[in-house]
Amino acid sequence: MEDFIKKLREGDIRTAARLMRHIDDRTPGYRDKLKKLYPYTGNAYIIGITGVPGAGKSTLTDKLISEFLDRGEKVGVIAIDPSSPFSGGAILGDRIRMQSHCENPDVFIRSLATRGHLGGLSSSTTEIIDVMDAMGKTVVIVETVGVGQDEIEIVDTAHTTIVVVIPGMGDDIQAIKAGILEIADLFILNKADREGAAKTKRELQAMLDLSRNLYKDRKIPDIAETVALFNKGVKEAVDKIYEHKNYLIETGKFEEHNKKKRELMFLKLLHDDLQENILKTFYNKERDNLISQIRDKKLNPYEVVEEIMNEIDLEHFCKVHNG
Amino acid sequence: MGNERKIRVLVAKPGLDGHDRGAKVVARGLRDAGFEVIYTGLHQTPEQIVATAIQEDVDAIGLSSLAGAHEYLFPRVMELLKEKGADDIVVWGGGIIPEEDIPKLKAIGIKEIFLPGSKIEDTVEWVRANVKPKE
User: Fold this and answer.
1) What pTM, to 2 d.p., does this model score?
2) Same structural domain for residues A140 and A230?
3) Which of A21, A95, A99 lies at the smallest CB-CB distance from B57?
C-alpha cells in the first residue's frame, strides 16, 4: 500500500487535506494518486443537501452530523460556495455553522469553491468524496451551492438528495420548476416553527400528489419537518434518510446508482483526456490560434472536427483492440 | 479561470470579540482580489482555528482581534501550528493592537500586522506578495 494511502486510512488529516488541494487544483500527479486510491472507494453513503439560500442548509448539516455520529457513522462534509465570475475568488462560509465538530477526528469538513463550474458542485467534488470515502468516512454530506433549475448535478453523485424548503415559500413552491421536485428523494421543511409551515407542507404535498406519474418507479419523497436551530425533528429526518437508503438497497437501485456513477466517471475521464490530448497533439502551439479562429467564425467547427477525426487512424486503433 | 492556482486563506476571530465587520470587510476584499477565503465566524478557539486551517489546507491565516486576544491567543495559535507541523502557513494579524506589541508578535512568527486605518488594498497586496500556494 502506498504511503499516502496508509496515512489517509490512519486518519492523517494533513495528508487528506493536502491531497484534496492537489485534486482541486489539478496539480501534476493528482490523477496518479486518484488511480491508486480507487480500490479503496465505493463504500460511503452520499447525501446531497440543496435548497434556496437562507433555508438553513448549513445549520441543518451541523445537526445531521451530530445525529449521524450518535449512530456510529464517521462523517465527511463538503460545503460548496460559488466563485465570483469576475474576480475568481470566493467566500467559503458554510462551515461557520459546523465549527463545533472541527476538532472531532471522526468528522472532516472541507469547503470548496465552484471555480466556474456550473451545476451546483465543483468539478472536483466527486473526487474529493472519494478521498473522504477512502479515509473511512461512512457518510459524506455534500452541501451544494443552492438551488436553481440548473443546479441538479448532485443527483448523479448522491444516493439520497435532500431539498430543503422553508415556510412561506407558498407561491414559490407553485412556481418551482419541475427540476427541483424531481430531484428530491426527501424534502426537509426547515424553520417549521414559523408561520405558514403547515400551509407550505400542504402545498408541497399537493404538488407531490399531482406529480404521481413522476414517481412511477421511485419512492414518493417524504416531507420531514425540522427546526434545525433548536435541533428539533432532526432524529426523525435522519430516520427517513435511512429509510430511503434501505429502500434503495432492497430494490437494487443502490447498486444501479453506483454502477451508473462508475460508467459516467469513466466516460468523463475519457472525454476530458481525449479532448485535451487531441488538441495538444494536433494543434500544440496553434491551439490558441485555432480557438481564436473558431471564436471569430473564421473556421467551421464541424469541418475542424471532421478533419481531426479523419487524421486519427481510428481503423488502426479498432484493429488493435478488437483483434 | 486558467491554470493559476488559487490561494486559500483563513480569516479567523479568536477570542471573545463581538464584532466582525472588519474581518468581513477584509474577507470580501480578498475575495474580490481572487482569493478563496474561509471565514469561520466569531468566538473561535486557537484549537479550532488550527484544526480548520489544516483541514482546509490554507496557505495563510489572517487573525483578527479587537479586544486584546492578540496577547495570549495569537501566540497560542502559533504554538499549535508548530505542534501540528503546520508552521509553513503564513500568519498575519489585524485589528485593535497597540503598536508597541507589534515587535513581540513578529518575533513569534506573525509576519505582519495591519492597524486601524490600513487600506484593504494594502492587505491584499501584502497577501499577494507574501503568500504562495502550498506545494
Assistant:
1) 0.91
2) yes
3) A21
